[in-house]
Design a protein that fits this description.
Blueprint lengths: L1 H20 L2 E7 L29 E5 L7 H6 L2 H8 L5 E5 L16 H17 L3 E5 L20 H11 L4 E2 L1 H16 L4 E4 L11 E7 L1 H17 L11
Parallel strand pairs: 1-2, 1-3, 3-4, 4-5
Antiparallel strand pairs: 6-7
């Protein structure tokens, strides 16, 4: 009997040791600006695809669950959020970035009224905390928008402010991609910022034979720049995963 108990304790200790060596998983919950792209959509790139390269190999695993066209409402209704919660383990992180589609009143299946958007974000934060993991709220990244006078303007209305309020009121780390990406786009300027987005001339890429003028989705350069901003936010918030970032 003593031998059996001893073996059992060794097995438990071994399992615990193995568990400690498992990489921390960062789940990404969001829309097309973050999501992984299909080959036929390249060179369009979600910034979430670039995040993993910033971490030391074997320390952090990126689970990019972001999906094109999703709002908080559809991410919940399609069961995508519950799947993240089911797969979440203690010590993991969930980066949550929505707003582009929630604010689209002209797309009823996606549109999420501000009060529901807030409730959904609170639910997301609470669900993650209940699993012993860390939620991180991110405001939506900016679209490239300049008026005829070259002045930058925003299209997200009150939604970024709601993210900031939920983060403040519920003690959730915030990475303000909205403000950070605005500064970045302005830095590149009216013409220079085009290279951050999916902008192609006719015949330049076989996936877009007629060209494309997309000021929402990113080029590989734009995705990398946005990922850099997220990494800056990880460091600024002093998140535990910051120690796994490459120097």
């Amino acid at each position: 009997m003593k031998v059996s108990i001893g073996i059992f304790l060794v097995l438990v200790a071994s399992a615990a040791s193995l568990g400690q060596k498992l990489p921390v998983t960062i789940f990404l919950a969001g829309d097309s600006t973050m999501a992984e792209k299909q080959l036929e959509k390249r060179p369009e790139t979600g910034w979430g695809e670039m995040l993993g390269a910033h971490f030391i190999d074997g320390k952090v695993k990126i689970e990019n669950r972001a999906m094109n066209g999703r709002s908080t409402k559809t991410f919940i209704s399609e069961g995508r959020w519950q799947k993240i919660i089911d797969d979440l383990k203690k010590g993991d992180f969930v980066f949550i970035q929505f707003g582009h589609n929630d604010s689209s009143k002209d797309k009823g299946e996606r549109y999420t009224p501000p009060e529901d958007y807030m409730k959904n974000l609170v639910r997301f934060a609470d669900d993650v905390k209940a699993k012993g993991a860390t939620p991180v709220l991110l405001t939506p990244v900016m679209r490239r928008r300049f008026d005829k006078d070259g002045k930058f303007y925003d299209t997200h209305g009150e939604y970024p402010g709601i993210v900031r309020k939920v983060a403040h009121d519920h003690d959730v780390p915030l990475i303000d991609m909205h403000k950070l990406s605005e500064a970045l786009i302005k830095k590149y300027g009216v013409e220079g910022s085009k290279k951050l987005f999916l902008q192609l001339k006719p015949g330049e890429n076989p996936n877009y034979p007629n060209g494309v003028d997309d000021n929402t989705h990113f080029s590989p350069l734009g995705a990398e720049e946005m990922a850099n901003l997220a990494v800056d936010g990880i460091r600024a918030n002093k998140l535990k995963i910051a120690k796994y970032l490459k120097k």
